Amino acid sequence: MKNEVLITAVPHLPELMKTANHIDIKTISGDVSLREFIAGMLSYTPGWVKFLYGVRWFFVRLLGMKQKGMPQNLQIRPADVAFVTGESAAFFAVKMAQEDSYWFAGITESHLTAHLGVIVEAGQPNRFHVLTVVHYHRWTGPVYFNVIRPFHHLVVRQMMKAGVKPPLRLQEA
């Protein structure tokens, strides 16, 4: 499916993207549901990502900003993925979602607002289109994002790989 068709399939996404300073779309396929994919992505917190957040802490201090904490070892179950606007999803807040179709969440800080979105293209296997949409608020936004951009791409790719891994299923006793 072409990106234009994907984008218009999600209400308010064209408006969100129209004023964005950065947009990227990455795609991966897997035999998991949208909920399973998001749970896998948001649960991905290896040591090297925590290390990058430690480096980020020093960097944002140099820019006069604050970091609200470090990523936790979240193990989000698919059933616990928030699909209600305003509810929390890890350190994001859900902005818009439709079961088995799309999910967008965002976080606003002093320097930028970042949205992470997933649009699923149903099939065998499903195709997951992961979008990052960033809006800068002041001069520190592009400085910050351009420094972290190479790591952003790496982290999102690894999150996507974690998302398509089949979830661990608890066996009935």
In short:
The chain is an alpha+beta fold and 173 residues long.
Order of helices and strands: HHEHHEEEEEH
Silhouette: globular
Strand order of the largest sheet: 1-6-5-4-3-2
Number of strands: 6
Q: Helical amount among residues, as a percent range?
A: 25-40%
In what range is the share of β-strand residues?
Answer: 25-35%
On the 0 to 100 scale, the average pLDDT is: 84
Our count of helices gives 5
Q: Sheet with the most strands?
A: 6 strands, antiparallel
Low-confidence stretches: none
Rg over CA atoms, rounded to whole Å, is: 16 Å
Structural class by SSE content: alpha+beta
Quaternary structure of the protein: single chain
For the terminal residues, how far apart are their CA atoms? 43 Å
Please give the structural blueprint.
Blueprint: H1 3-8, H2 13-18, E1 22-30, H3 34-42, H4 47-62, E2 88-89, E3 92-98, E4 102-108, E5 112-121, E6 126-136, H5 140-163
Antiparallel strand pairs: 1-6, 2-3, 3-4, 4-5, 5-6
